[in-house]
Each structure stands twice: as C-alpha cells, then as structure tokens.
Amino acid sequence: MRSVGVEEEFLLVDPESGAPQAVAETVLAQAEDAHGLEKELQQEQLEVATRPTTTMDELSAEIRARRGAASEQARAAGVAIAALATSPLPVDPSLSAGRRYRRVANEFGLTAQEQLTCGCHVHVGVDSDEEGVAVLDRIRPWLATLTALSANSPFWQGHESGYSSYRSLVWGRWPSAGPVETFGSPERYHAQVTAMLATDTLLDEGMLYFDARLSHRYPTVEVRVADVCLDVADAVLVAALARALVETEARAWRAGEPPSPATVGVLRLASWRAAKSGVQGQLVHPLTWKPKPAEAVCEVLVEHVREALADTGDLAMVQQAMGDLLERGGGAGTQREILAGTGDLRSVVAHAAARTLAPEGDVKG
C-alpha cells in the first residue's frame, strides 16, 4: 500500500476580528517541538505536515493531531488557525524573514507581495523516478477535478471573487505554475527541470510549481492543485483520491497504456473551469473534454480509480465523503452559505476557525 502524507497551509487570524495576523515567527519561536510546523512565504500563514501513513484512518488522525498542535501554538500567540485558502477579509501581507524570501520579493514584485494563499499538497510514495514520471504523464487529465473538490477560496480582499477557488488564479501568476506536457522518461523530466533553472527565472527547484511534480525532498509524487480544505474529511478525501490516481496510473503504465494526448491548452481550460465552478457548476469532462455537471465528473473520477480504492479499502469511505461534500458544496459553498446567513465576512472566518478543529466521525478506510 502506497504511503501518503499531506502538507496543509493555514491562515493565522485574530479570534475577534478575523483579520490575518503576521505572527508566524512568534508562533514558531515559542514552540518547544516545532516538528511538522513550518513558516511560509507570508507571516500570516503557517504550514503543517503530517507523517507518511498507509491508511486513511491514520491520515485522518495525523491531520487532526497536526491541526490541533498548530492551533495550540497559535492560541499561545493570541491567534487562531483557519483552514481558508484565501483571506475573506482585506489584508496587506507581510513577507517572512529570510534571504530566500527577500529574493522572491525582489524578483517577483506584486506576485509575491499579494501571494497570501493556502494550499494542500499530497505526497504519494512511488518506487522510482521512472514510475513517478509515468504517473505524472497519466494523471494530468484528472487533477482539475481535485481542484474542484477542494475549492475553498471564494473571497478575496473583502470581495466575492466569482470563483470557488480564487487561490488557483492567484497561484497561477507564478511563472512555473500549472499543467505541463508529458515527459516520457525521467531523463526528459530532469532535462526540463535543468532547462527551466538555466533561464535564471526561478530561484531553485523548490519553485517548480507544476500541478504535480516529483518531490525534490522525498520519493514521492507531489500533487499540488488543492486548496487547503475546510473540513478534515475533505482533506482525507482528496488524499485518498490522489493516492488512488497514482496507483491507477502506475498500473496503466505497467500495462503499456499510453498517457492522454490532452494538450496543455485544454488542461489549462479545465483547471480554470474547476477553479470557477468548484463542485457547484460545470466542469470539463476528463475523457471527452466537454462540459458536464460537476457531480457527473466527480463520479467519473471515482469510477476511474475504483479498483485502486477497493484494493486499499477506501472505496466506501470515498463514496460517502464525496456525497457529503457534493451536498455541502465543498468549502466554497460553506463559506458562501455563512455569508448569506450573516452578511458578515468576519463570521465566515470565525466559522472556519471553529470548523478547522471541529470533531467529526471517524474516517473509515
């Protein structure tokens, strides 16, 4: 069974006003054991990483434990964590200290200054670079659906953005972000990385912001398209689907099945549509490339990875979690519902902060 782990980024917010607070360095400095807690680009956010696990029960417990530890450290600094992929309230972000972050700010200007976004990155174990690149080539059509399922950023700087995952649009400003072409071999993948770094546009390999990539730190495929999820159950769902995709496409590669010929242009349109609609509108079907209701596309994804989900015992959990998410409208739907009921974006943040740590039923699988 393949290992899976997640990295989640959270906003640090004032418990009363809901405004993001630039206190990440304070939070980390006071932590006696900062294992799993890291700073990010802006001081208004914090990253939390789980250990690798092999079951979804373990992953759910890890996510809850890491969120709890981050919340405890944040509370000691007078703030709360909120699983929001963008801030609903206006904010002027504060760049984190460090030479690398200064270089990012100097090189990328407003793209860096305005980049207060929180994602969820899923790491899935692979046996080799050869298997990893084969997987990257074959999962491309399905990644936009993961964006839609995780969409949790409808508001930006105090306004309705018109998107369910506005984080995806803001993230797309980076020069290396988005879908990529097929590589065909590890040699071609690494040659592409070398060529991109040789342009002197990116600071280092860490700035290769492909939708999915080979991790430069771990023996994993890193799927990077998801917003941070409001609910733990949604994060587990995205991770379970990401692992099933990796396993499904590794099996396809071993069986000699070629990757989809989908072009980067079409993949970009599918990604944009996923960011726009979330799970409450039309998505681009990953096999026909025609518009279909989000629920139908999500069902096609589950069917595509059904065998891998069944083999890990995750199928029933994924079906239940998917149904629950579609009924709620995901994180974006929840945020909009809170605003409609209260008329106050501060209430959206307060609800998110509470829900980030809300107890839920056990995730089976």
UniProtKB/TrEMBL annotation:
GO terms for biological process: modified amino acid biosynthetic process. Its EC number is 6.3.2.2. InterPro entries: GCL_type2/YbdK_subfam, GCS2, Gln_synth/guanido_kin_cat_dom, YbdK. It catalyses: L-cysteine + L-glutamate + ATP = gamma-L-glutamyl-L-cysteine + ADP + phosphate + H(+). Keywords: ATP-binding, Ligase, Nucleotide-binding. Pfam families: GCS2 (PF04107). The keyword Cytoplasm does not apply. Coiled coil: none annotated. Signal peptide: none annotated. HAMAP family: Glu_cys_ligase_2. Belongs to the glutamate--cysteine ligase type 2 family. YbdK subfamily. NCBIfam families: gshA_cyan_rel, PRK13517.1-1. This is Putative glutamate--cysteine ligase 2.
